[in-house]
Amino acid sequence: MEKPQSDLERDRQYCELCGKMENLLKCGRCRSSFYCSKEHQKQHWKKHKLICKEADRAQLPKQKPEQAPPSDADKAPDKSRETEQREPAERAPTPNSTAPATGDKPGEDVSANGATPNGQTGSSPQKLAVEYVVPCMSKHGICVVNSFLGAETGLGVLENVKALHKTGRFTDGQLVSQKSDSSKDIRGDKITWIEGGEAGCEKIRFLMSRMDDLIRHCNGRLGNYTINGRTKAMVACYPGNGTGYVRHVDNPNGDGRCVTCIYYLNKDWNAKEHGGLLRIFPEGKAQFADIEPEFDRLLLFWSDRRNPHEVQPAFCTRYAITVWYFDADERARAKEKYLTGAGEKGVKVELGKPTDSS
Fold first, then answer.
1. Residues of the domain holding 31
2. What contacts 24+ positions apart, CB below 8 Å, involve 73-80?
3. Is 203 inside a domain boundary?
4. Secondary-structure breakdown of the chain: helix, strand, coil percentages, each rounded to the nearest 5
5. Does residue 188 lie within any of the structural domains?
6. Which of 20, 72, 80, 150 has a Cα-to-Cα distance from 197 of 20 to 30 A?
7. Which of helix, strand or coil describes residue 310?
8. Is 230 helix (H, G, I), strand (E, B) or coil?
9. At 152, which CATH number?
10. Do the bridges between strand 309-311 and strand 245-248 make them parallel or antiparallel, or are there none, so unpaired?
11. How many separate domains does the chain show?
12. How far apart are CA 310 and CA 99, in angstroms?
């Protein structure tokens, strides 16, 4: 059975040239391939035009096959038409989540009919989970949700985090089985752990509840996992002095963590100027995925060896909140190893408080 068009689009939301999975453009001719920029569309045109022509013939049966409409990829750039260079590609839709405690409407820039600026309508947590997050995780093992809480609530979370930072509660991020100061060469973030009930962390607690709602609606559909718990929230800050975190895996040794959820809090982030990209290297794929730590963005990915990743050097203060969700069976096995003393020291440390950040 042929998939509905919406499912096909979700399955192919990555740049055909580099594999990037955000801020995509859709080919305006065949409307079935995506690119991260006009430049990559043009570079890929020699290969894509064969497929694009076939799709174009199906849409324009009266046109002779050898006279397919010209594409911008076949033309030299015309500076006098810079404002029109967005065609033939158009922006691919990016999912938005619900507003806090207001039902099914998105939380940011909502018009009277519930549509967001990118043309999407608001989705309930269940709809977002079932129709977007689950298919995206199943296909790519990575999922980006923009405007997760909405601007107002997101700013409230940011205020909580900045206030925490001023208290001096943040300490150097640690490595599993750390024995020296060598971790500073590997990761340069400052972190603190939040349960959610602490004074001044009310908005962080709300964020955690929204994450829980989303994962709850995904549960039973994310691979073979049965999610039955999570860590505290790790609030992390890269101070902007050019530090990052070298390539690593969150859960390399089966400590129970199956899904990593990261919420970003960085207003007006410009990766070219500020750096700080999260680069993911999906196992078995030639492409990598670059995720900008943009304000009110939620990122989900598998926590195990399928997704090695790194935080590139950040040259501006960079905030993120990370929560890891546990698979019941793997967590039980990890606890058994810990209790029987069969596990390595690294597993014991991870069981107490996971120490990876992104």
1. 25-58
2. 73/41, 73/42, 73/45, 73/48, 73/49, 74/45
3. yes
4. 35, 20, 45
5. yes
6. 150
7. strand
8. strand
9. 2.60.120.620
10. antiparallel
11. 2
12. 31
Query: Would 70 be classed as within a structural domain?
Result: no
Residue 253 · residue 295 · CB < 8 Å:
no
CA 68 vs CA 54, 59, 104, 224: distances in Å: 9, 11, 43, 46
pLDDT of residue 278: 97
Q: Which of 105-119, 235-249, 282-296 has the lowest mean pLDDT?
A: 105-119
Lowest mean pLDDT among 2-16, 128-142, 184-198: 2-16
Contact between 177 and 345 under an 8 Å Cβ cutoff? The reply is yes
Task: Please state, in angstroms and rounded to a whole number, the distance separating the CA atoms of residues 248 and 346.
Answer: 14
Structure tokens at 70: 């010209």
Shared domain check, 155 and 38: no
Q: Is residue 35 part of a domain?
A: yes
In the structure encoding, which two tokens stand for residue 192, read together? 């603190």
* Those residues with Cβ within 8 angstroms of residue 139's Cβ, 6 or more apart along the chain or in another chain: 10, 11
Above 80 in pLDDT, residue 120? no
Q: Quote the mean pLDDT of the chain.
A: 75
With H, G, I as helix, E, B as strand and everything else as coil, classify residue 242.
coil
